[in-house]
Amino acid sequence: MAKRCAITGKGPMVGHSVSHANNKNKKRFLPNLRTIRVVLEDGTTRRIKVAASTLRTMKKQSR
What family does this chain come from, according to its entry (predicted)? Predict the structure, then answer.
């Protein structure tokens, strides 16, 4: 399954892991995904993967 947020589309980023001696190794920065249950308009539930930062924003906006 893809490591991508179902709402915002956030996915893995590529960068370098840099040591103290300035050696660079390739690294993937993966999003912090959480599986949540969402109730759809027709009453059925579906599990989707959502980034933790997106969940925080959703909670903030629901207040």
Answer: Belongs to the bacterial ribosomal protein bL28 family.
Q: Note whether residue 6 is domain-resident.
A: no
Nearest Cα to Cα of residue 33 among 60, 3, 2 = 3
What total of structural domains would you count in the chain? 1
Question: Minimal CA–CA distance to 16: which of 7, 25, 8?
Answer: 25
Alpha helices in 1-63 (DSSP H): 52-62
Over residues 7-45, the pLDDT tens digits come to 999 999 999 999 999 999 999 999 999 999 999 999 999
Q: Are strands 45-51 and 33-39 parallel, antiparallel or unpaired?
A: antiparallel
**Residue type for position 50:** V
The overall pTM is greater than 0.85? no
